[in-house]
Amino acid sequence: MSKLVVQAPIVKQETIANQVNKLTVYAPELANQAAPGQFIHLRVTDGYYPLLRRPLSISSVDKQHGTISTIYRIVGQGTARLAALKQNDIIDCMGPLGKGFNLECKTPLLVGGGMGLAPLVFLAQRLCPRPIEILMGGRSEQEMFWNSIYNQICQKVHITTDDGSVGQRGFTVDALPALLEAGIYDMIYACGPRPMLERVAMIAKTFAIPCQVSLEEHMACGVGACLSCTCAGKDSKRKKVCTDGPVFWAGEVF
Fold first, then answer.
1. Which residues, in sequence order, are bridge partners of residue 133?
2. How far is residue 236's CA from residue 238's CA, in Å, rounded to a whole number?
3. How do the domains of the chain map onto residue ranges?
4. How distant, in Å, are the alpha carbons of 150, 155, 158, 160, 162 from that of 167?
5. Can you say how many angstroms the Cα of residue 179 is from the centroid of all Cα atoms in its chain?
């Protein structure tokens, strides 16, 4: 599977929550190749600032219409420039990049926190019609706009919030052991903050359930040349998150 660089027209730019947008572009070449867990690398300006592309996970693909979508949070000048783009604007898009999820499972459990829930949407869509459950968390009810998205895809949605405003009070991983004791899962897919992923990996190992994690790291080139996104592997070798990942078996990195 080769990476492509295309000039993609923007089909839709929509606000789905506070400081969170969904961007959809027409890029049939990318849509035909994209796999869950991969990302696209967007150049948000024709000038030199910001210089680097913005890596964003692929949140959905529509092969029939040739579109690819990403859900992103507006956190700095790069994503602010991206959010300012409108329908029919052209954006320089590189992808699909990285290694995606292994989809060999029958009864998966997805675990996501914060914006780590973005790539799991595409994964859930591809895993259908298998029975899919998701455990997801955020700081408050305001961040749980994901509920309306996943309720359309997953058989069961389990929610935690730090303040208890919706779902179970506490962190996402606090609810995981009870779910694993009660359910019959043959694969865990997780994406979110690194401390969360470390605990998910540890709990999955305790229950002897295979686990894949999608790492979130700052990236520059996105193609494995600059080494800015490397992380330590359990084999004492550095892993390039942009090319060796972003998806790893939990035992490779935790």
1. 109, 156
2. 7
3. 4-97, 108-252
4. 15, 16, 7, 5, 10
5. 22
Tokens for 99, please give them: 């290694």
Find out whether 41 and 68 touch, Cβ atoms under 8 Å.
no
Calpha distance 25→148 (Å, rounded): 22
Amino acid at 43: R
The whole model's pTM is what?
0.96
Name the fold adopted by 108-252: Rossmann fold (3.40.50)
pLDDT tens track, the chain, 254 positions: 568 999 999 999 999 999 999 999 999 999 999 999 999 999 998 888 888 999 999 999 999 999 999 999 999 999 999 999 999 999 999 999 999 999 999 999 999 999 999 999 999 999 999 999 999 999 999 999 999 999 999 999 999 999 999 999 999 999 999 999 987 999 999 999 999 999 999 999 999 999 999 998 888 899 999 999 999 999 999 999 999 999 999 999 99
What tokens appear for 253 in the block?
């990195």
Distance CA(57)–CA(216), nearest Å, equals 10
Architecture of domain 4-97: Beta Barrel (2.40)
